[in-house]
From TrEMBL:
Keyword Glycosyltransferase applies: no
Superkingdom of this protein's organism: Bacteria
Origin species: Spirosoma endophyticum
Name recorded for this polypeptide: Dienelactone hydrolase
Gene Ontology terms for molecular function: hydrolase activity
Keyword annotations from UniProtKB, A to Z: Hydrolase
Keyword Hydrolase included in the entry's annotation: yes
Lineage of source species: Bacteria, Pseudomonadati, Bacteroidota, Cytophagia, Cytophagales
Residues annotated as domain Dienelactone hydrolase: 20-250
InterPro entries according to UniProt: AB_hydrolase_fold, Dienelactn_hydro, FrsA_esterase
Pfam families associated with the record: DLH (PF01738)
Length: 255
């Protein structure tokens, strides 16, 4: 494991000042790079922690921001008001993702030929839009993703391996939806896989917190959220291992 360096990264996108999180190994590269998209609530400590863990495994990781530094946890109406219009606008999603990707690729010691992507919820949709429009990701891992329209013609020119993950009890991103999208990828000739986590709901990696930000006990969220969200610690770890295994596999460097 590597010692890491972390820093906030500020940039302009979607008429907002974004505050991303960059993590990288200490020492000279070149290092493979991972672009991370947060879910609709906003960039939080979980995605920052995933970037840090990737850096410890030898990746440069940028956890992008697409809410201008805001986090909507506990404010589901405000989250939906920001996120739903964004998900309805492919051009905005692609523009936001492209700026973040350019920031990552401009980071010193990044090996652009070993580029990967990881997304959660709405952030999954952004990285999938980037892949669909030509970003050369070797692999894309998405967890409870918002999915683009299922048109195989949009995916025929890709060479990415795609991992789709959701919980069996997720009412927003069901196993059936992921399998249907996977068959679209199969029709396009892509390497894909679906992992279903039994008993898990939407955003099963998100730990409950009290209104003061401190962690709460149990799996049920104390603060208001959209229906169907619940924490599942075992599957959180299993999903993370699946991401690391995928990245190691496509780069021929098992973590």
């Amino acid at each position: 494991m590597h010692q890491i360096i972390t820093s906030p990264v500020f940039y302009e996108a979607d008429s907002l000042k974004m505050v991303a999180h960059l993590a990288r190994p200490q020492g000279q590269g070149p290092w493979p790079a991972v672009l991370i998209g947060h879910d609709g609530v906003g960039l939080d400590d979980y995605q920052r922690g995933r970037a840090d863990d990737l850096a410890a495994h030898g990746y440069v990781a940028l956890a992008m921001d697409f809410h201008g530094g805001q986090n909507f946890f506990g404010r589901p109406d405000a989250m939906l008001a920001r996120t739903m219009p964004l998900l309805a606008d492919e051009g905005r999603m692609r523009a936001i993702g492209r700026v973040a990707l350019n920031v990552l690729l401009a980071t010193p010691d990044v090996d652009a030929s070993r580029l990967l992507a990881l997304g959660y919820g709405a952030g999954s949709r952004i990285v999938l839009e980037l892949a669909q429009t030509g970003a050369p990701f070797k692999a894309v891992a998405v967890v409870h993703p918002a999915l683009p329209k299922p048109d195989a013609d949009d995916w025929r020119d890709l060479n990415s391996t795609i991992l789709l993950c959701t919980g069996s009890e997720d009412p927003l991103v069901t196993p059936g939806q992921l399998l249907a999208f996977g068959h679209t990828l199969q029709e396009a000739g892509l390497d894909w896989r679906v992992t279903i986590y039994g008993g898990a709901q939407h955003a099963f990696w998100a730990r409950p917190t009290n209104s003061d930000g401190l962690l709460a006990e149990g799996s049920t969220h104390v603060q208001a959220t959209v229906p169907g969200v619940g924490y599942h610690p075992k599957h959180t770890e299993r999903a993370w291992r699946a991401v690391l295994d995928l990245f190691g596999e496509v780069l021929n460097d098992r973590c």
